[in-house]
Amino acid sequence: MAEYVANAIQTVADGQNVLLETSIPCNRGYVIHRNGAGILTLRGIVNNPCSCFARYQVTYNGNIAIPTGGTVEEISVALAINGEPIQTSRARQTPAAVEQYSNVTSPAIIDVPRGCCVTVAVENTSGQAIDVQNSNLTVSRIA
């Protein structure tokens, strides 16, 4: 398991990624991340010669809010693979006012073909900037 975090409040523009720091690195080379970046790379390393893919469970948990000056409406984040949001992982919330934080969770199972790599990020899919705090992204190799 690898874990990536960001505890400070950060304002994330629409379509941009939450920036993360490594908390628990992957020591086997399955997950690659540069501190301060919003993108992780999952590698399709397989241990069984009959396996066609490596499977990962990726889960994001964090607090999101509308920043001061924003419009009170639904806001959301989603896990994105190679820059494209996974709509089934979209975590949505409609706060009653600006700067009112809500906790959201966004999980996904991601298959990486043998010998390939995919990038994963937590993307703001709100249509406006949001504030994000206490972000936690965990990556577990499950097959």
Please tell me about this protein's structure:
- The chain has 143 residues and is mainly beta.
- The chain has a single domain (2-141), classed as Jelly Rolls, CATH 2.60.120.
- Helices cover 0% and strands 54% of the residues.
- The protein is built from no helices and twelve strands.
- Strands 1, 2, 3, 6, 10 and 12 form a six-stranded antiparallel β-sheet that branches. Strands 4, 5, 7, 8, 9 and 11 form a six-stranded antiparallel β-sheet that branches.
- It starts with a strand and ends with a strand.
- The model has no long low-confidence stretch (mean pLDDT 96).
Layout of helices and strands:
Layout: E1 2-6, E2 10-12, E3 21-24, E4 31-33, E5 39-43, E6 53-65, E7 75-81, E8 84-85, E9 91-93, E10 102-113, E11 117-124, E12 130-141
Antiparallel strand pairs: 1-3, 1-12, 2-12, 4-5, 5-11, 6-10, 6-12, 7-8, 7-9, 7-11
Protein traits:
143 residues, mainly beta, Jelly Rolls, 6-stranded antiparallel beta sheet, 0% helix
